[in-house]
Amino acid sequence: MTLDLFKPAGETIFKDRHTTKAKELLRAWEPGRSSEFALAGIPLSKPSISHSGASFAPGAIRSALGSYTTYSAEQEVELQQPIMDFGDIYMDPTDVIGNQQRAYEGMREAYATKAAKKWMILGGDHSISYSSIKAFAEQHGKVGVIQFDAHHDLRNTEDGGPTNGTPFRRLLEEDVLKGENLVQIGIRDFTNARAYHEYALEQGVIVYTMADVEQMKINSILEKEFARLAMEVDAIYLSVDMDVLDQTFAPGCPAIGPCGMGSRTLLGGIEFLAQQDKVGAMDIVEIDPTVDFRNMTSRVAAYGLLRFMAGTPGTARG
């Protein structure tokens, strides 16, 4: 007996024979399977300094992929490579420190499968970047990080432990990352303390404020910094804190504010970096779907995944 009038739960609401939705590229990873791209979720937000429902973001971003097709009219290419989806790392309801360790161990295991050349990691708050970058560095050697962010995330750990404001401080202090190999882009006025800005400069971190982005333009900055990093490191990790965007583009960020980056600028930067072979991973963090408006912020994040894929030369194209 067949039920011809039923469709499996979760499938696209409307199916057009000529249209493939981006969500259809997701494939559950199994041992031995590989692709150009892999996806993993780290749904952790309890270390956030402010209230955050960012633990719901991995599911919201995956769902938002259903809003887009796989065809880029601008580039006249069809995304056909499947995305190996590892699912979400299990998070204990109460053990914050244990969850950060579990995120590190989970990503270490995922990277070790070598299931993909390019990895896309969905947070969670920005504390997950510590765990993911630490695991990434163990697999790839000397690592450089390009961070899109309104904040330095270089807070001390004495005043609250390892929060979403401390990931890059921890990476520097543990010698996972050298200051000169961390590039921060989009740092915003009246958003950081003087002490942390001075700490960044003392450590040799390369800092571009939003005023720098407006004056120099994003591609000029990225061309310069990628060329420099490529000579110094074995692999580059891209960390995208969505609060780098102006609040008009990212209402679902816990730390929204004016005078931020436009979505076109951020997405163009992601695509530029995806074109570079040394860029092996990207995380997207700090989206709270519970306060978002019509999933606007999750949709920008999903679009960022597609730009990351579209920018990757050769194998991402049909």
Would you kindly provide a brief summary of this structure?
Helix content is 33%, strand content 17%.
Characterization of the model:
- The chain is of the alpha/beta class.
- 33% of the residues lie in helices and 17% in strands.
- The chain is built from nine helices and eleven strands.
- The strands form two sheets. Strands 1-5-2-6-11-10-7-8-9 form a nine-stranded parallel sheet, with helices on both faces. A two-stranded antiparallel sheet has the order 3-4.
- Helix 1 crosses helix 9.
- The protein starts with 25 loop residues before the first strand and ends in a 7-residue tail after the last helix.
Q: Estimate what percentage of residues fall within beta strands.
A: 15-25%
Radius of gyration: 19 Å
- Largest sheet, strands/sense/barrel: 9 strands, parallel
Tally the beta strands. 11
Outline the secondary-structure elements:
Layout: E1 26-28, E2 37-42, H1 57-64, E3 71-72, E4 77-78, E5 83-88, H2 96-112, E6 118-123, H3 128-140, E7 143-148, H4 167-173, E8 182-187, H5 194-202, E9 206-209, H6 210-216, H7 218-232, E10 235-241, H8 263-274, E11 279-285, H9 296-311
Parallel strand pairs: 1-5, 2-5, 2-6, 6-11, 7-8, 7-10, 8-9, 10-11
Antiparallel strand pairs: 3-4
Q: Could you name the key traits of this structure?
A:
318 residues, two-stranded antiparallel sheet, 9 helices, Arginase, Chain A, 11 strands, alpha/beta, nine-stranded parallel beta sheet, 33% helix
